[in-house]
């Protein structure tokens, strides 16, 4: 008989987690003003808030931690990280940062100014926040297929070239500092971008003289989908595909807490020496010296190993197969999710799950709270609260989709946990018609409100 799939690792250390009662959870979420970010972690049984920095490191990474070089300037650990990044991306210049949004802050301080236009595929929250904080505008050019959750399309993260060219034709070149390609595209459901589309965006951008940058937090997962789904890519290694992806860009930002397989860290990688010099000044101001940028030597050493491990097929197959395992269970139960299943998370379609909850009462947030109360599972809303207010009109923005993202930490939970999650969602789904009201905002910050927002029952 054919041997069943088995994870390419074994468990060496475990961390206890505590189950709570439904009464406890209802009290805790009320005290947290119905914002799952406000919960203390020991009040969560299975934490799917994010896959950012929540995974488990390998024995090789823990070993690298012990040999980290903590020299202030020019440490050996920086050289190890540089060699790893250069091997995978081909980029000549590297600036470490303490995490991905810090990389955005440094690079956008150089490139983005008042009145600029930054087109791309469904910019994520911190990315859009950094753009709008500088009084610039992010324009979503994602293909329309991405917003039909039932439609099967292999690359729902793709940029619509017609939409992109319209941006290039509408605004002067001087107002478009770059096109940003997010791989994989988190906001549209962890959906990949095809190699063909990346190359086409590069060619179109060259025609108009516009640079191309990558938001690369999940670049290895994107390369996995290219290998699995795109014609002519099946016999290539993940590292070969990654090298070609980055050859079509001028640089990248990276949240290393995702496909770097570490708990903290980020970086900027570039080919342009002038931009590197300018960004170096902001790195020194905001982060630290240019050869550590807010990271310890041991963190850089672990990241160098993590990037190598994350770009191996066996690891990626294990990681993405577990996400698909959960997603397929939900599909079999009739629960509406973004299809096909993305690389790092299952995105539950809250508009179809809770049709009786008004948009202005935030159905995705309502569903996320119900899932927590049901089973102690913490997900996150990717909907109107995250979409924030229009910076000019201050009206709520209502995106085309309202998701609850169940982000799966890397090498952390077993499939028994996935079974538990699926059963919990089925229980909520079975009583969905009893849920007819959601929440209203009682307090919010001026930008990126979803992290700290306070809610009351509507």
TrEMBL record:
- Identify residues that carry N6-(pyridoxal phosphate)lysine: 258
**Which cofactor is recorded for it?**
pyridoxal 5'-phosphate
Q: Which InterPro entries match?
A: ArAA_b-elim_lyase/Thr_aldolase, Beta-eliminating_lyase, PyrdxlP-dep_Trfase, PyrdxlP-dep_Trfase_major, PyrdxlP-dep_Trfase_small
User: What are the UniProt keywords, alphabetically?
Assistant: Lyase, Pyridoxal phosphate
Sample GO molecular function, one term? tyrosine phenol-lyase activity
Write down the top EC class of this protein: lyase
Give the family this protein belongs to, as stated in its UniProt record: Belongs to the beta-eliminating lyase family.
Recorded protein name is: Tyrosine phenol-lyase
**Annotated organism of origin:** Chryseobacterium taklimakanense
Q: What is the lineage of its organism?
A: Bacteria, Pseudomonadati, Bacteroidota, Flavobacteriia, Flavobacteriales
